[in-house]
Amino acid sequence: MTHQTERIDMQRLPRHIAIIMDGNGRWARSRGNRRTDGHIVGVESVRAVIEAASELGIGYLTLYAFSTENWNRPREEVDMLLNLIVSVLANETEGMKRNNVRLRMIGDIDRLTPEARASLENSMAETSGGTGLQVNLAISYSSRWEITEAMKKLAQLAAEGKIKPEDITEETISSHLTTASIPDPDILIRTGGEQRVSNYLLWQIAYSELYFTDIYWPDFRKEALEQAIIDYQSRERRFGLTSDQIKTAKK
Ligand code: FPP
């Protein structure tokens, strides 16, 4: 255990960590390499972060691997990125199983080729018995897409007379999102220096702590994750209440 790990309060770990993995292209460019090299090294960060989160006992890790908007990148980069994600997951399925990790996808994976989809579905099925860390991979995901889909489903149910408009609550909306049954993230981390949320989990991060770091994703490893958790633990989450109310509730 490193000195830094000891500074983490194991009683107050975030239950759910969401990450926007940004800066792969700039990391590679700053070394005079092709952008795609950044994605390849970024895979090592994914592995390191999954391992560290799993060892700490974090419940859920949600990684933004490919956004709806990423479909508009040059064809070569899109193909490379999706092939990389699919092949890495296929190779890592056994290791995830051994480590009790459960893999789930959030996103419009129907847009992938049937082979890619079948491979991802196989990884999910193979790891479905995992009772440790749940890794949610956002692939072909955007928040406005999933909210639109949820609204369509609810409108359909209403049109069929199965629900009444007044039956729609925050819980019904949550349960029609791709993250149904996953608790909301406690912290959203974005690497790569930008400070925005880029159409990621907009509904779910209503009360999440936001953590921005300049570190490019390929350099974001265990120490950087621990640093984010330590920062998170130094904050007071009030959920709209006053400090005094929070202190009284804790007693
Ligand atoms: C953002 O960097 C990163 C992505 C769009 C892809 C992230 C994907 C990986 C790290 C591979 C994931 C693999 C698995 C198995 C989940 P960018 O290209 O937008 O960088 P830039 O902002 O510097 O251009």
Write the layout of secondary structure elements.
Layout: H1 3-6, E1 16-20, H2 24-29, H3 35-56, E2 60-67, H4 75-98, E3 102-106, H5 114-126, E4 134-141, H6 143-159, H7 170-175, E5 187-190, E6 209-212, H8 222-233, H9 243-250
Parallel strand pairs: 1-2, 1-5, 2-4, 3-4, 5-6
Helix pairs in contact: 3-4, 4-5
The protein binds farnesyl diphosphate (FPP).
Structure, briefly:
The chain is an alpha/beta fold and 251 residues long.
Report on the architecture of this protein.
This protein is an alpha/beta fold and about 250 residues long. It is about 45% helix and about 15% strand. Strand 3, helix 5 (about 115-125) and strand 4 (about 135-140) form a beta-alpha-beta unit. Helix 3 (about 35-55) runs parallel beside helix 4 (about 75-100) and helix 4 runs parallel beside helix 5. It is globular and about 55 Å long. The two termini are about 30 Å apart. Bound molecules: farnesyl diphosphate.
Residue ranges: pLDDT <50 for 5 or more in a row?
none
Apparent shape? globular
Estimate the strand proportion. 5-15%
Give helix and strand order, one letter per element, not per position.
Answer: HEHHEHEHEHHEEHH
Main pleated sheet: 6 strands, parallel
List keywords for this structure.
251 residues, alpha/beta, six-stranded parallel sheet, 45% helix, 14% strand, globular, binds farnesyl diphosphate
